[in-house]
Protein 1
Amino acid sequence: MIQRTQKAVRNAKARTGFKFLFAAAMLIELSGCASSADPSAMTIAPQASEKAFPQNLLHAMCVRNVTGGEETNPLWASKVDNKGFQAALGTSLDNAALTASADNCSYPIDVNLLGLSQPAIGFDMTVTSHVNYKVYDKTGQPYLLQTVDAPFTATVSDAFVGVERLKLANEGAIRESIKQFFDKLRETTPK
């Protein structure tokens, strides 16, 4: 009788152990690995706007520096790196007909990604990007200094897996930041 009880206890422990391992394996599978934000997903398409860009900005701008980005650790959380941000902003400038030829950049842009406010967990994940944009004129003097705080929310319907949802929220926050920066460019005419 005692042997049967001891065997039943061992079997119960084994089943509990297997259930724990199965649950842990499922969590790892569902969590996936974090990946960097995709530059094409952070790019804004040409926008219809009532207000056009100032004429002297057309074909006269370039991205000079992007700083503050972070590389993504696949075991942690998705981030936005400098190279990806620069590619997204550069393509967005191209799409808006603002990019200068290689040797004719009159209005260089320096960008500092101050940070991403990211949730640790959640069903709907809202990320807010904090980005400082500096645009210089032909004489090298800053003519536009703008800090943009841009939130974006990715929901479970956008992506079931949490790390993918966070990546989508990062990309949306940067895309929204670039959009707000472009709106400010439309309002400011350089000398």
Note: Residues 34-187 form a domain with the Rossmann fold fold (CATH 3.40.50.10610).
Protein 2
Amino acid sequence: MASRPPKRIRIPLNGVLLLDKPVGFSSNDALIKAKGLLNAQKAGHTGTLDPFATGVLPLCFGEATKFAQDLLDADKTYETLIHLGVSTATGDTEGEILERKDVNISREQIDAALARFRGPIKQVPPMYSALKRDGKPLYEYARAGITLEREARDVTIHALEFLDYQAPFLRLRVACSKGTYIRVLGEDIGAALGCGAHLQELRRVQVGHLTLDGCVTLEQLGAAGEAERSALLAPVDSLLLTFPEVSLSEPLAKRFLQGQRLTLTKEGVALPAAAGRVRVYLQPADAVSNRQLLGTAQLHEYGVLAPERLIATAQPA
């Protein structure tokens, strides 16, 4: 009887991989591929990108998964190519064509249409989406030919920039709040222009403060040596750089990691100018040692520090 191959031992990696997701991969497919290449124990992604879309997909490993929600809630920026005059069932290239119309649109008409979609707007989520109704994603109903009523949602288009127009293709840059569907925005712009539209291309270029700079592809990850792959991960606190920081001495760090609330004004700790969410570090004992992230906390008035999410591997000496 042939012996079974030894079970692969996963590595407890902690960090963030900025992936430039390729066309044809779902976000989960890309995560599984990267997790396998890194041989990592625990991983999660920070919001979905449609299979036809590309661009910034932060993948969180180990302790970084505790902070993934911050990127789910973050603003996003996209560059998209809208095909005017052709409407599809999904609002992108993956759906069947529903209607074709002639396109005779001027730049002035485009500018007037775009002006209608800047700022706070209402947007009806698409049927081809992962939103759930009675435990089933909407796309399952859509594939069965069922269309359900969906309530319009409030989203914000922070910026809607014209990049190029070579009829019938319109290229835009969109900065938006979480929950915005660029497919729906493209369809709505097409409807405002009277010709219909779908997305030909979609590329996410920024999530929160994270951009395409420093992103790696699955091909680059696969080509790297085993030791080099883990070096491609950014540290956990790369997700938290927009938050002010607080540094604690070793005794305070131990109490913080036990979940204790600390009144830092009594401890002589330097504090940010305003209350709010902060990232918390162990203050190095000397100039040579590296700082150690302890987690995040809410800094309240009067210098009260309330632990929020803690790094399980943090160990003050």
Note: The longest strand covers residues 153-166.
